[in-house]
Amino acid sequence: KNQVEQSPQSLIILEGKNCTLQCNYTVSPFSNLRWYKQDTGRGPVSLTIMTFSENTKSNGRYTATLDADTKQSSLHITASQLSDSASYICVVSARGTGNQFYFGTGTSLTVIP
Amino acid sequence: EAGVAQSPRYKIIEKRQSVAFWCNPISGHATLYWYQQILGQGPKLLIQFQNNGVVDDSQLPKDRFSAERLKGVDSTLKIQPAKLEDSAVYLCASSRVGGGVSSYEQYFGPGTRLTVT
């Protein structure tokens, strides 16, 4: 069964600290993996996208890693800011037809001053 | 470029009433998606259109939900009659091509928050 699991479910960190969010998946055949940021009351916005051959991708203070062998990904946030408070969703795409996108339940991050 | 537009942003209805949501995708995007996002969960795909044809509606509760994209541009999602468990955010997204063809990005609208009382 194609699934995407994220951990932790929620996280509270101090402003300026780093944090790492985890994503494990069982989606096959794998096409690509995306991390989205969803602010409260808004739609998700893409942060990074990685294909099978990529094992790291950065977007400013966000760095995503992918281990296609163990089917794990992480999103590392450096020097967190208050504006990083949001839900972070991992989405894995499968190759083929029909429903291609498998969404995790997200990690709710709260950055406090 | 303008983003994905959705309206209304918020809607409160009583159970058994009907409701409709509207989505206008990014110009030139052939694929349009409707998702249901229940509080604390990730989005769940309800229906995917490629131009004006349905690609996947396997998770759409067809006894009460319907969607159309008549001219291959904007789309409406309707619920009739609504149930309490339909309370959720309904997200519309669009992409240039379908998900099975490439890794083209999905762009999401702000969503419509539906509360059924």
How would you characterize this protein structure?
- The complex is a heterodimer of chains A (113) and B (117).
- With 113 residues, chain A is mainly β.
- Chain A has strands spanning 4-7, 10-14, 19-25, 30-38, 45-51, 56-59, 62-67, 72-77, 86-94, 101-103, 107-112.
- In chain A, the strands form 2 sheets. In chain A, strands 2, 4, 5, 9, 10 and 11 form a 6-stranded mixed sheet that branches. In chain A, strands 1-3-8-7-6 form a 5-stranded antiparallel sheet, with no helix packed on it.
- In chain A, a hairpin with a 4-residue loop joins strand 7 and strand 8 (72-77).
- The termini of chain A are far apart.
- The mean pLDDT of chain A is 92.
- Chain B is mainly beta and 117 residues long.
- In chain B, 0% of the residues lie in helices and 47% in strands.
- Chain B has strands at 5-7, 10-13, 19-24, 31-37, 44-50, 53-56, 65-68, 75-79, 88-95, 107-108, 112-116.
- In chain B, a hairpin with a 6-residue loop joins strand 4 and strand 5 (44-50).
- The N and C termini of chain B lie far apart (37 Å).
- The mean pLDDT of chain B is 90.
- At the A-B interface, strand 5 and strand 9 of A face strand 5 of B.
Low-confidence stretches of chain A: none
N-to-C series of helices and strands of chain B: EEEEEEEEEEE
Q: Could you list the spans of chain B in which at least 5 consecutive residues all have pLDDT below 50?
A: none
Helix content of chain B: under 10%
Sequence of secondary-structure elements of chain A? EEEEEEEEEEE
Strand element count of chain B = 11
Sum up the overall morphology of chain B in one term: globular
Radius of gyration of chain B: 13 Å
Helix percentage of chain A: under 10%
The number of helical runs of chain A is 0
- CA(first)-CA(last) distance of chain B: 37 Å
Q: SS-based structural class of chain B?
A: mainly beta
Mean pLDDT of chain A: 92
Structural class, from helix and strand content of chain A? mainly beta
